[in-house]
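Problem statement: downstream parser choked on a complex file, so we are re-checking the raw output for the cobalt (II) ion run. The parser issue turned out to be on our end (a line-ending mismatch), but while we're here, posting the original submission so the record is complete.
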Amino acid sequence: MQLVYYPDPRLREAARPVKKVDAALLEAVPGMFEVMYRARGIGLAGPQAGLDRRIIVANLTGDPAQKEAERVFVDPEILSRSGEKREEEGCLSFPGMSVTIVRAEKVEIRYRDLEGKEVRREAEGLEAKLFQHEIDHLDGILLLDKMTPADKKQWSSLLKELEAQYRSRTRRSRPARAPKRASSDEKPVRT
Ligand code: CO
């Protein structure tokens, strides 16, 4: 399983609902966590691992040793939003980029866990931000869509670099290699 980077068209498709968790999906989950940890992220949506399913894995600590903090959200939905918060946000599919995004401060969420148990609760802080970011991924929405013209100008060389790397990978049709990072020791806040 490989991380899917911008501008791969798989990031632009709306993912299919899981409905019933099957063996294939259960097998994919550890791979998703591995991809997320390798990229030092705290959350990953199915399409970012090439999986066309409405599933999110997360570990808000970003620490692979803290297994008890691992969460899997199946067919997650945001039922309501409240408040507003402007914060910096990154995305594993845009390595090295960070933009200020307005998100709801709190969200009411509904999802199922891997055992099929439905959960409905409120999320706030980092988790609320994560949900909004990852559910955007499930709908084919990227940080790029939330960026102002000034943001796009600021990050244009990085975006062009990612586009060039994608073209060169698809030309050679070899397994994806991780694009170069702007910095290798950022905090694990990217999702
Ligand atoms: Co992302």
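For whoever reads this later: The chain is about 30% helix and 25% strand.
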